[in-house]
C-alpha cells in the first residue's frame, strides 16, 4: 500500500502517519501521532498496556515465613515488583521452552533471605532480592531509591524464599504490564463532539481544555459542525513502571502488533493453500 | 473446518504474542453459503479489539469491499470474528490478505517514523528526571 500517496484515493490529503515526540524522560514519553485512524492509534495504546512482554515473578517457594504477613500475601507483593526487562528478548516463554518445568532459558531465579536480629524494625525491600541473572534485577530508580517495601520484620522474624520470574504479557496478569498508565487524547476542543459534557451553567468554566489544546487552533464557536471530520491527531503519553525504557515500550508495542498481523497473514496463506489443494474448490 | 484441512497445516507455529496454549488453528473460516468466495467470516483465536478494529478499518478502506465488521461473540471466549463481503471482482480471502498487508505497511511506517524521531532527538530529553 502506498502510504506516501493517497491509498485508494479515499484518504484525501493523508500523507502517511507521522510521529512527533514532545518529551522523553527516564520513565515517560509523550508524543503526537498524526494522520492515522483512531482504530490504529487505539491498537497502539492497547498493545502497549497489555501485550508488550516483560519479566515478573510468577512462582514463589517459601521456605521460612515468620513475618506478620501470610505467604500468599507476600507472594502477591513480590509479583508486582518491576524487574528490569531490557533483555526480555533473550528469555523464552516457559511454554515455548523445551525444559520440563523451568530453566535458565525461560526464567530468572531470585532469592531472598532476611532475618531481624536487632531490637528495631527491619524492612525487607526489593533490594534484598538476589537475582541469579545480572541482566534481570529488580528495578532501582537511582542511588537514593531504597527499593520497594515488601514486609517489615520485628526481632526474631525471618523470611526466606525463592522466586521464579518468568516472561509474560499483561493480557494474562497486569503485573507484566510495562506501563502504569497511558494517556490518550484526541480533539481537545471536542470539535467532533465525541464527548458529551454534563453542564451546570457554563461549559467553558466547568470543563477547562486540556494541555494538548495549546497545540491546536482554537475553533471558531460559530463554525458549523463538520459531520465528516475524523480524528487524526492523537496525543499519547505513557508512563512506565521502570522495567522497560518508554521508547522501547512504544517500539516493542508496534513490533508486537506487526508480529500478530504477520502471523495471521501466514495462517491465512496456509488456509488458502489447503483450499486450493482441495480440487473440489470452495467447499465449506 | 474439516480435520483433513487441519492436518495439511504444518505443526503449530509459536510466536510471541500468543498466550499459554500451543495453537494450530489460529484462523478458521466459518462456513457460510457454498462456493461463495466473496463473503466469508474469519474467526481469529486469541485476538481482540486490538487487531479487530484496526483490521476492520483497513479492510473497509478497500473500494472492492462492500462490508466488513468484527465482533467478539462472547467475552470469556478468546475469539474474534471478522466478516468480509466483497464485490465479485475479488474474493474475501484476497481482501483479507490485502487488509493485513496494508496494516503491516502502515504499522511499519509508524515504527520507522517513531525510530527516526527518537534518533533525531529533537525533543525535551531528561535521562534522570523521574516522578516530579
UniProtKB/TrEMBL annotation, chain A:
Q: Please report which protein family the annotation says this sequence is part of.
A: Belongs to the archaeal Rpo3/eukaryotic RPB3 RNA polymerase subunit family.
Q: Which UniProt keywords apply?
A: DNA-directed RNA polymerase, Nucleus, Transcription
Q: Where in the cell is it found?
A: Nucleus
The record's section on Pfam families has: RNA_pol_A_bac (PF01000), RNA_pol_L (PF01193)
Instruction: Decide whether keyword Zinc is in the record.
Output: no
- The keyword Nucleus is annotated on this UniProt entry: yes
Q: What is its main location?
A: nucleus
Spell out the molecular function terms from Gene Ontology. Answer: DNA binding; DNA-directed RNA polymerase activity; protein dimerization activity
Write the protein's name: DNA-directed RNA polymerase II subunit RPB3
Organism per entry: Jimgerdemannia flammicorona
Q: Enumerate the InterPro entries for this protein.
A: DNA-dir_RNA_pol_30-40kDasu_CS, DNA-dir_RNA_pol_insert, DNA-dir_RNA_pol_RpoA/D/Rpb3, RBP11-like, RNAP_Rpo3/Rpb3/RPAC1, RNApol_insert_sf, Rpo3/RPB3_RNA_Pol_subunit
Output the PROSITE patterns linked to this UniProt entry.
RNA_POL_D_30KD (PS00446)
Quote the SUPFAM superfamilies the UniProt record gives. Answer: Insert subdomain of RNA polymerase alpha subunit, RBP11-like subunits of RNA polymerase
Q: Any one Gene Ontology biological process term?
A: transcription by RNA polymerase II
Automatic annotation (TrEMBL), chain B:
| InterPro entries, alphabetized | RBP11-like (IPR036603), RBP11-like_dimer (IPR009025), RNA_pol_Rpb11_13-16kDa_CS (IPR008193), RNAP_AC19 (IPR033898), Rpo11-like (IPR022905)
Lineage: superkingdom: Eukaryota
Q: Does the keyword Transmembrane helix apply?
A: no
Family assignment from sequence similarity: Belongs to the archaeal Rpo11/eukaryotic RPB11/RPC19 RNA polymerase subunit family.
CDD domains (alphabetical): RNAP_I_III_AC19 (cd07029)
Q: Where, if anywhere, are coiled coils annotated?
A: none
Q: Tell me where in or outside the cell this protein is found.
A: Nucleus
The Swiss-Prot or TrEMBL record annotates one GO molecular function as: protein dimerization activity
Please indicate if the UniProt record lists Transcription as a keyword.
yes
Entry protein name: DNA-directed RNA polymerases I and III subunit RPAC2
**A Pfam family matched by this chain, by name?**
RNA_pol_L_2
* Keywords of this entry: DNA-directed RNA polymerase, Nucleus, Transcription
A GO cellular component term found in this entry reads: RNA polymerase I complex
What species was this sequence derived from?
Jimgerdemannia flammicorona
Q: What is its main location?
A: nucleus
GO biological processes:
transcription by RNA polymerase III; transcription elongation by RNA polymerase I
Looking at the record, the residues that make up the DNA-directed RNA polymerase RBP11-like dimerisation domain are 40-110
Amino acid at each position: 500500500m502506498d502510504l506516501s500517496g493517497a491509498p485508494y484515493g479515499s484518504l484525501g490529503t493523508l500523507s502517511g502517519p507521522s510521529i512527533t515526540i514532545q518529551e522523553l524522560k527516564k520513565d515517560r514519553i509523550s508524543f503526537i501521532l498524526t494522520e492515522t485512524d483512531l482504530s490504529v492509534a487505539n491498537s497502539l495504546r492497547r498493545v502497549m498496556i497489555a501485550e508488550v512482554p516483560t519479566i515478573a515473578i510468577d512462582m514463589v517457594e517459601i521456605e521460612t515465613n515468620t513475618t506478620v504477613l501470610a505467604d500468599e500475601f507476600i507472594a502477591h507483593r513480590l509479583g508486582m515488583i518491576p524487574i528490569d526487562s531490557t533483555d526480555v528478548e533473550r528469555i523464552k516463554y516457559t511454554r515455548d521452552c523445551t525444559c520440563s518445568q523451568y530453566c535458565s532459558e525461560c526464567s530468572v531465579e531470585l532469592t531472598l533471605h532476611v532475618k531481624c536480629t536487632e531490637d528495631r524494625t527491619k524492612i525487607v525491600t526489593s533490594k534484598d532480592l538476589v537475582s541469579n541473572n545480572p541482566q534481570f534485577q529488580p528495578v532501582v530508580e537511582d542511588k537514593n531509591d531504597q527499593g520497594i517495601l515488601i514486609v517489615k520484620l520485628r526481632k526474631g522474624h525471618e523470611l526466606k524464599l525463592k522466586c521464579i520470574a518468568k516472561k509474560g504479557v499483561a493480557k494474562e496478569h497486569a503485573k507484566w504490564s510495562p506501563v502504569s498508565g497511558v494517556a490518550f487524547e484526541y480533539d481537545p476542543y471536542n470539535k467532533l463532539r465525541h464527548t458529551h459534557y454534563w453542564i451546570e451553567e457554563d461549559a467553558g468554566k466547568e470543563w477547562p481544555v486540556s494541555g494538548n489544546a495549546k497545540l491546536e487552533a482554537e475553533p471558531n464557536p460559530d463554525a458549523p459542525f463538520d459531520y465528516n471530520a475524523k480524528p487524526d491527531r492523537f496525543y499519547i503519553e505513557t508512563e512506565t513502571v521502570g522495567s522497560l525504557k518508554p521508547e522501547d515500550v512504544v517500539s516493542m508495542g508496534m513490533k508486537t502488533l506487526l508480529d500478530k498481523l504477520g502471523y495471521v497473514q501466514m495462517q491465512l496463506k496456509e488456509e488458502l493453500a489447503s483450499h486450493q489443494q482441495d480440487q473440489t474448490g470452495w467447499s465449506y | 473446518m474439516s480435520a483433513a484441512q487441519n492436518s495439511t497445516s504444518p505443526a503449530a507455529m509459536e510466536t510471541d504474542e500468543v498466550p499459554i496454549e500451543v495453537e494450530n488453528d489460529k484462523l478458521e473460516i466459518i462456513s457460510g453459503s457454498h462456493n461463495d468466495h466473496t463473503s466469508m467470516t474469519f474467526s481469529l483465536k486469541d485476538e481482540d479489539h486490538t487487531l479487530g478494529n484496526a483490521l476492520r478499518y483497513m479492510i473497509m478502506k478497500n473500494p472492492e469491499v462492500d462490508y466488513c465488521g468484527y465482533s467478539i461473540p462472547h467475552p470469556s471466549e478468546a475469539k474474534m470474528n471478522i466478516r468480509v463481503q466483497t464485490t465479485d471482482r475479488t474474493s474475501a480471502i484476497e481482501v483479507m490478505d490485502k487488509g493485513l498487508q496494508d496494516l503491516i505497511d502502515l504499522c511499519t511506517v509508524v515504527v520507522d517514523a517513531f525510530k527516526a524521531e527518537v534518533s533525531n532527538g529533537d525533543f525535551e530529553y531528561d535521562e534522570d528526571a523521574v516522578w516530579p
